[in-house]
Design brief:
This protein folds into three domains: about 130 residues, Sandwich (Jelly Rolls); about 120 residues, Immunoglobulin-like; about 110 residues, Galactose-binding domain-like (Jelly Rolls). The radius of gyration is 21 Å and the shape is globular. The two termini are about 40 Å apart. The strands form five sheets. Strands 1, 2, 3, 4, 5, 6, 7, 8 and 9 form a nine-stranded antiparallel beta sheet that branches. Strands 18, 19, 21, 24, 25 and 27 form a six-stranded antiparallel beta sheet that branches. The chain has a four-stranded mixed beta sheet with strand order 10-17-16-12, with no helix packed on it. It has about 400 residues and is mainly β. The relative contact order is 0.14. It contains no helices and 27 strands.
């Protein structure tokens, strides 16, 4: 069962702290029970994630438009100073709906883990019913996988689910959702396959399609695999990280099981293993910190470099600053090398590679940063992994 740390189900007959910016509390369109939020814009403040280690935002909604038109749902998060935090770099999600189609929306909140005083906004292009909103501390099961494909190569990968036994938990329906918008490829799909049907999301270009729920006649008792397809058409040096959630529910629309797949898509054999490894912000002062990333890479040998890019601000407003990547053994008893980038030099930099690192071995990437700036700065910090 998912570890639900906060659930707003609106069955008390009030919005439970949600501000109805453009919406109402509705008693006609709920997926389950009596009440739901109906409208286009909802907002809640003072969210505390200080004790949540892997925060995920999940909500169920029903599209009310009768046309097959491309609409969008945006989730925005602001910190305590009401500064917008760009969680995934692309928070806008294009969703196909038809009349009364039920769907799930899942957002990875790991980049704001540990923060307090957050504000969350849900903004919809068209009127929807939102039956409940939940913050969950991690999925029930989490899997890591990777896809390596050359430019314009059609590539398929199947990920087996060893923890896919669903028997005895009364599964009625399930859906699949991308949690880290948007798709960065010309063609891409993901299919969650059970012993009683499947659910699929499919994409062209930057359009995200969140598949409707699958409700098989016979309840599934086994989640067998996730099937991935990608055709990269950009010839990129970098790869990307995407997180795909598969959500199983009972007949009362209660969350029964959530699987999260962390997928590393690599173009031409070189990729950042963690594209959102650090998204650090400073507000006209000094900011510093560190982050450990656990990795295990398969191959003959591999190397890692560090990429840093300014998302907000520029080097001219930084008086002093650096980001450092160090590779350690799993217990940090062995230091395999480090690289450092000077933040005053350029708005986008890639370091040299740390070579000849051990494969099929548990390692730790430690990222450390310190920056003093005269105005707000947001940095994207990416370890680039090259496998051969």
């Amino acid at each position: 069962m998912p570890n639900i740390v906060q659930l707003w189900d609106f069955e008390t007959g009030d919005p439970q702290g949600w501000e109805l910016v453009d919406g109402v509390l509705d008693d006609t369109g709920a997926l389950a029970g009596t009440y739901s939020l109906k409208g286009k814009h909802f907002k809640i403040s003072n969210i505390d994630l200080s004790s949540v280690s892997k925060p995920i935002l999940v909500f169920l909604f029903k599209g009310l438009t009768e046309s097959w038109t491309d609409h969008n749902i945006t989730v925005k998060v602001y910190d305590a100073s009401e500064t917008y935090i760009n969680i995934t770099l692309h928070t806008r999600v294009s969703t196909w709906y038809d009349y009364a189609t039920y769907k799930v929306f899942v957002v990875d909140l790991s980049s704001v883990q540990g923060k307090t005083g957050l504000t969350i906004e849900i903004i919809c292009d068209r009127t929807v019913n939102i039956d409940n909103v939940a913050i969950i501390d991690g999925a029930d099961y989490e899997y890591n996988t990777g896809v390596v494909a050359s430019d314009n190569e059609d590539k398929y990968v199947e990920v087996d689910v060893p923890d896919g036994d669903l028997s005895g938990i009364n599964i009625d329906r399930f859906g699949i959702c991308l949690t880290t918008p948007d798709w960065r490829y010309t063609q891409m799909s993901a299919e969650a396959i059970t012993n009683q049907g499947s659910a699929t999301i499919d994409s062209n270009g930057t359009v995200n399609k969140h598949g409707a729920y699958t409700k098989p006649d016979t309840a599934p008792t086994l989640f067998q695999k996730l099937k991935l397809r990608v055709k990269i058409s950009i010839g990129a040096y970098d790869g990307w990280l995407e997180k795909i959630a598969v959500v199983f529910l009972d007949s009362g629309w209660n969350y029964k099981r959530i699987y999260l797949f962390i997928v590393y898509y690599t173009a031409n054999g070189v990729s950042p293993r963690y594209v959102n490894a650090v998204n650090t912000t400073t507000y006209g002062s000094t900011a510093s910190g560190s982050k450990d990333i656990n990795v295990r890479i398969h191959g003959n040998k591999f190397s890692v470099a560090l990429k840093v890019k300014y998302l907000v601000g520029e080097p001219s407003i930084v008086s002093v600053g650096s980001v450092k990547l160090t590779v350690y053994s799993s217990d940090k008893s062995t230091n395999y090398g480090s690289v450092t980038i000077d933040l005053t030099v350029a708005s986008e930099q890639v370091s040299g590679f740390i070579d000849n690192l051990p494969t099929d071995t548990d390692l730790i990437f430690t990222i450390e940063w310190s920056i003093t700036a005269s105005a707000r700065v947001v940095l994207l910090v990416v370890p680039l992994v090259k496998v051969s």
